[in-house]
Amino acid sequence: MFAWDDLRHLIAVSRHGSTLAAARALGVNQSTVHRRLAELERRVGLALVTRHPAGYRLSEVGNALIDGVLAVETAVTALERSVQALKDDLNGTIRLTCPEPTVARIAATGLLDRFHARYPGLSVEFVTSDRYLDLAKGEADVAFRSGEPADDRLVGRKICDSIWAIYASKAYVQQHGRPASLGDLANHALIGFDGIMQNHRVATWLPGAVPGARIVSRANSMLGTLSAVKAGIGVAPLPTTLGDAEDTLVQVLPPVEALTRSWYLLSHPDLRKTPRVAAFVDHVLADLPALRTALIG
Asked: pLDDT in tens for each of the 297 residues of the chain?
């Protein structure tokens, strides 16, 4: 029947006795007060104020309704205070899921140190996994995730691209030579994937790209793959962020376009609105250079 904003103007007139004084109290033009009162009376279908030489007074109907209107004001004020209290309640833990190799890189940028300095009541807890944790089921609050989001219930934004190339150790290249092409990988020992890595895009790409690949070892994590390559066991695709950071490794083949994916910052929409998660996401988005450095170097 009516809007709370119109009721505010009626309350102001009842308290201050004129539309001019009410306008000053509300920080609006006097014409706005007149317009709001007229709209309220139109919606209610009753005259709520009467004009007098000294200003405006509530009509008989207005006086009959004002206690209920003031009760609405009290309820709205209490609700606003409750909402603000929730916004100010910046305490608790943000559970952040990401691949294990990125944890040290995120910490090294100072991104979390700056967050904790700004919000001392909040802490960040890493939940590392090479599989995608289910944010909708509460397995984590926020995700740094490589690959197009498969869950349309999540919200977020793209941060940067994840680039992959083919790597081997210097010792492996010295002993076995360097592959000349993707097809030439069939002549080399390759690191395969097992466990939760079986459905990773690299695991599904490898058989098609290198038919008859000679798999000499299988890893169930990205760090396990990295360790196998560093040990000289064989050749494997790796994110350039990881491979280029290792002095003992060489990029034997350039980035593979088919393996390029995007990094996303994701959360569930219900959690995104909570003060603690909103504070963390907004802080990260305001410090994107640091996050990109952590994810891709």
From this structure: 678 888 999 999 998 988 889 999 888 999 999 999 999 999 889 999 998 887 888 999 999 999 999 999 888 888 887 776 666 678 889 999 998 888 999 999 999 999 999 999 999 999 987 778 888 888 999 999 888 777 778 899 999 999 999 999 999 999 999 999 999 999 999 999 888 788 788 888 999 999 989 999 999 888 899 999 999 999 999 999 999 999 999 999 999 999 998 999 999 998 888 888 999 999 999 999 998 988 887
List C-alpha distances in Å: 119 to 23, 112, 283. Answer: 39, 10, 10
Structural contact between residues 189 and 161, judged by C-beta atoms closer than 8 angstroms: no
β-bridge mates for residue 160, sequence order:
263
Alpha helix (H) residue ranges in 194-258: 201-209, 222-230, 240-243
Residue 67 belongs to domain spanning? 4-88
CATH number at residue 234: 3.40.190.10
